[in-house]
Write a structure and sequence with these properties.
The complex is a heterotrimer of chains A (477), B (241) and C (217). Chain A has 477 residues and is of the alpha/beta class. A 6-stranded parallel beta sheet of chain A has the order 1-10-7-4-2-3, sandwiched between helices. Chain A has a 4-stranded mixed beta sheet with strand order 8-5-6-9, with helices on both faces. In chain A, β5 and β6 form a beta hairpin. Chain B is of the alpha/beta class. In chain B, β7, α12 and β8 form a beta-alpha-beta unit. Chain B starts with a strand and ends with a helix. In chain C, 30% of the residues lie in helices and 22% in strands. The radius of gyration of chain C is 21 Å and the shape is globular. The N and C termini of chain C lie far apart (48 Å). Classes of the chains: A alpha/beta (477), B alpha/beta (241), C alpha/beta (217). Chains A and C meet through α3, α4, β1, α8 and α10 of A and α1, α5, α6, α7 and β9 of C.
Chain lengths: 477, 241, 217
């Protein structure tokens, strides 16, 4: 039986329009990035990447110290740090806070961490109106979908679909010009900002020496979320720490460039505590929820710890030939693309979707563009090996395991290897195996050869190299 | 006494593209090397390694180290297999110091074919002639694991009569990926079709690469699509005169 | 307790003990190019205009005041209480509201105004960025709610870029509850990657850089 993920992947591939749209959209993002990291524009790009990786490595290796420093700094400025072991605890804190403050409306700015823990859904279940304010994320909320891309959540939606969604959900006339659609969203969301009691954000960085939450965005919705409501709650994974504000000089240069090809995004906010004496706006209360939700488990694995370096720029998605064809909804969890393949198994459990780390040609385009130099292909290989080990232990995937054992046995025996090669060549005949395959028993018919021929041909068999080499050597002598 | 090189032709070339191996031998002999083919060779172990079967990969890798351990130079018509031997063997044997040491000692003597010509032999012009328009596909492992980008193009530029016409996104994966091609056939096929389209738009007669695995994928898709473009390994181009 | 539990797990994962200080961090990496004032202005103007903003250079504070007056005409504007705006005579312009004491009044005025006028603590030449530290004098909403943002600052506050900013401001949290870097007009490309300006923040941004010595700051 064909597994569901294969069926879904086929469905996306069969939708030529969608595949083309994703491919073109990611091509533009690739192009934008290339222009701003070019040596003539940013000569020290490689040094910046190296420094970013070093800082992330250092911070994670000393994370407890930085978490405590951050906490003390936040408290020193009148903010509150809340610790959450999982998404449930993070949501419970918010619900309790909302109850205590009699809050009725929450505005949210886009955050993968809150997607990860289904925060909005959890709040809505308790009848707390929660509105996404990033335009793309708002579209996704109205469409009741999951973000398609870490940076561009509505990448897959056409403006016609957006027009239909707005018309259906907001009761406005159908509008298909993005500029006018944006105006509609601006008007609706402006009222929400001004009426909201709590603003919820994620964090791009948490600065230990400053107790600051750093938010990076283009629309201004994160600024409004953290300026208009009387309470600001940032929900962030513990891996977001960096030691010093000065390190931002490195990370900010890399993040915007890698994500959208911007030397700096339009707005970068460093938020340190509630409004101060004499200020007329900004939140009166400031909370940072430090979320574990599986991160400490990843941290314990020295080798794969580097998955936590990720700054969620999405560059690996844009450059991934697999993501560019199957899009963001064929991945089992909110994190898609190459980084999703690496972190989903670590957060969700290795055997939850064991196919995932195998869905890569290991082309390494992701590692080439990662601003913090995560060795994604190497981690995929590690995960594959762990999955195979588990299969072995649990006695599963017998056929594949048997095939590789046999293969290894043959490959250590050159004589047998040669004989089998000749036999296979003879069996395959003129058409390189296609005619033979058609007559093959069903078992073989479902195997790798069948998969190969479903897409392409095989070179017609002939003599092997070693046969030709012997003839050649004989002739020379 | 001319220097001695050992060919590791790779299992793929042995079984499917024997002419690539012969072409490589011919070019190496032409520039003065004594070429040997250790007959006990089979595979580097990459198929198992990339599919997660580390123990099986180790068995085959040990066989490789035994066959080639004493070679002066091992020349390989594949960036992918070269990267497997020079880089991934060290991961594979991380916990087996004796084999790790053998892998480390051999690694600097294992060369991808184009790089061997340029960096060891110091030859850019091997006296080849091919009257044709060709386009070059960057194999992912050659490009991103070994950093091979300009070398093959420099060698092609010296081939008389040859015009190199770059395709769009020559650095984008062809979709082969070893067992990926059979675990995700439709996805792999979609990647190949993009590559085909880029190749077709150049109007080239041949698509050239330094990896036969990419050429097997691209050639198989070309054949299925009925496009009048042929695949050639760089060694085959350089052997023409 | 979640706090103890998370910290315990972190320490176990890292084989660290409670209270153990962090190992020395890699030194910060700040590279400040030598850039004369003229080059700073040119880079700034080029970068900002590339983003769809407008950069204007004037000779003195009085001219800055006249420029702002010409931009806003008799349409409603709000201005911050940054001393430099007063020095330029901007807070005294007839259609400008300033000197708010009440949060609700500030918010209502910003929501209704067509222009928000602020100064800026710094500007970054290489990216065309304004650096604004929130304070009682410089509220956040003025540069955020009105559809057009005008910023006026003396040329001496032009820094080369992020590295110089974090060199002169190593501890930004000390000076403000919110330090905001503004690089061009608010924008989105969330629908079919078509660029639209003015999503939630201002869709237009004018920066007036004033030559001559700064007397207030």
């Amino acid at each position: 039986m064909t597994p569901l993920y294969q069926i879904n992947i086929r469905k996306t591939l069969a939708d030529a329009h969608l595949e083309e749209a994703i491919y073109a959209a990611t091509a533009r993002l690739m192009d934008h990035r290339r222009q701003v990291v070019a040596p003539e524009v940013l000569p020290d790009y490689e040094e910046l990447r190296e420094q970013a990786r070093r800082i992330k490595q250092h911070t994670l290796e000393n994370l407890d110290a930085y978490l405590e420093q951050f906490e003390a700094q936040v408290q020193g400025r009148g903010g509150v740090v809340v610790w959450a072991r999982d998404g449930g605890e993070a949501a419970d804190f918010l619900l309790e806070l909302a109850r205590r403050k009699q809050a009725r409306l929450i505005v949210k700015s886009k955050s993968m961490t809150s997607e990860e823990i289904g925060l909005r859904e959890r709040l809505e279940q308790h009848h707390l109106e929660t509105v996404e304010t990033d335009l793309g994320e708002y579209i996704i909320q109205l469409a009741q979908e999951r973000p398609y891309h870490i940076v561009a959540p509505a990448l897959h939606k056409t403006r016609y679909q957006v027009g239909e969604i707005f018309s259906r959900r907001l009761g406005v006339p159908e509008e298909t010009v993005p500029e006018k659609q944006t105006k509609i969203a601006r008007a609706v969301l402006r009222q929400k900002f001004l009426a909201a009691d709590i603003g919820v954000t994620g964090a791009n960085f948490l600065v230990a020496d400053s107790g600051a939450v750093v938010l990076v965005e283009n629309e201004g919705n994160a600024r409004l979320t953290t300026s208009a409501p009387r309470i600001h709650v940032a929900v962030a994974g513990i891996e977001k720490l960096i030691p010093r504000a000065q390190d931002l000089a490195v990370f900010l240069k890399l993040l915007g460039r890698s994500a959208t090809g911007q030397p700096l995004t339009v707005y970068t906010s460093l938020l340190a505590g509630p409004r101060r004496e004499g200020e007329l706006d900004g939140p009166e209360e400031f909370y940072v929820v430090l979320l574990d939700n599986g991160r400490t488990r990843v941290l314990a694995d020295r080798d794969k710890r580097q998955s936590l370096y990720c700054i969620r720029c999405g560059a690996c998605l844009n450059h991934c030939p697999v993501y560019r064809r199957i899009g963001g909804h064929n991945y089992p969890w909110v994190y898609s693309g190459p980084i999703g393949k690496v972190i989903s198994p670590q957060f969700q459990g290795l055997m939850q979707d064991p196919w995932l780390p195998f869905a890569s040609s290991l082309c390494a385009a992701c590692a080439e563009v990662c601003p913090v130099k995560i060795e994604i292909p190497r981690l995929l290989l590690e995960l594959r090996a762990e999955i195979v080990k588990t299969w072995r232990r649990e006695g599963r995937k017998r056929l594949e395991r048997w095939a590789f054992r046999l293969w290894a046995w043959v490959m250590r025996r050159p004589r047998i290897y040669e004989m089998l090669g000749l036999a296979a060549g003879a069996l395959m005949g003129e058409e390189g195996g296609r005619s033979w395959l058609a007559k093959a028993p069903a078992l073989l018919n479902a195997g790798p050869l069948r998969a190969w021929f479903s897409q392409r041909d095989l070179p017609p068999p002939g003599r092997t190299f070693r046969q030709l080499w012997r003839t050649r050597t004989a002739r020379v002598r | 006494m001319p220097a001695r090189v050992s060919l590791f032709v790779t299992c793929l070339v042995d079984q499917f593209f024997p002419k690539v191996g012969l072409a490589m031998a011919e070019v190496l002999e032409r520039i003065g090397y004594r070429v040997e083919f250790p007959e006990a060779q089979t595979c580097c172990g990459q198929p198992a390694f990339n599919t997660g079967y580390r123990e099986e990969a180790r068995q085959v890798a040990r066989h490789f180290l035994e066959v080639f351990g004493q070679a002066d130079y091992v020349v390989v018509p594949s960036g992918s297999c070269t990267a497997m031997i020079t880089r991934h063997y060290q991961e594979l044997f991380a916990k087996q110091p004796e084999w790790l040491e053998r892998a480390r000692r051999l690694a600097p003597r294992v060369w991808e074919f184009s790089r061997f010509l340029l960096e060891v032999a110091g030859v850019e012009d091997v006296g080849a002639r091919l009257e044709a328009v060709v386009t070059y596909h960057d194999g992912c492992h050659a490009l991103r694991e070994l950093g091979i980008r300009e070398g093959p193009r420099r060698l092609l530029a010296r081939v008389r009569g040859l015009e190199l016409r770059e395709m769009e996104s020559s650095e984008e994966c062809c979709g082969f990926g070893g067992t990926f091609a059979v675990k995700f056939p439709e996805l792999s096929g979609a990647m190949a079709r993009t590559k085909l389209e880029a190749i077709r738009r150049t109007g080239a007669r041949y698509v050239v690469s330094i990896d036969s695995s990419c050429l097997m994928q691209i050639g198989g898709a070309l054949s299925r699509a009925g496009l009048p473009v042929e695949t050639l390994h760089l060694a085959e181009v350089l052997a023409r005169r | 307790m979640p706090r103890e539990s998370v910290l315990h797990k972190v320490r176990t994962a890292l084989a660290r003990k409670a209270g153990q200080p962090a190992a020395p961090a890699p030194p910060p990496r700040l590279r400040i190019p030598a850039l004369d004032p003229e080059a700073r202005w040119e880079q700034f103007a080029r970068a900002l205009e590339k983003l769809g903003g407008k950069a204007q250079r004037v000779a003195d504070p009085a001219e800055a005041g006249r420029s702002v007056a010409a931009l806003i005409g008799d349409r409603p504007a709000v201005a911050s209480q940054a001393p430099y705006l007063a020095e330029c005579g901007i807070t005294r312009l007839p259609s400008v509201q300033s000197g708010f004491r009440d949060p609700a009044a500030l918010r209502a005025a910003c929501a209704a105004a067509e222009f928000g006028i602020t100064s800026a603590q710094y500007a970054l030449a290489d990216t065309g960025t304004l650096v604004i530290a929130a304070s009682g004098q410089e509220p956040r909403l003025i540069s955020l709610l009105p559809p057009v943002h005008i910023a006026v600052l003396p040329a001496g506050r032009l820094l080369s870029g992020l590295d110089e900013l974090f060199a002169v401001l190593p501890a930004p949290a000390e000076c403000a509850s919110a330090l905001v870097l503004i690089t061009g007009p608010s924008r989105t490309a969330d629908i079919e990657q078509i660029l639209v300006r003015g999503v939630h923040g201002p869709g237009e941004i004018h920066v007036i850089v004033v030559d001559g010595r700064e007397t207030t700051g």
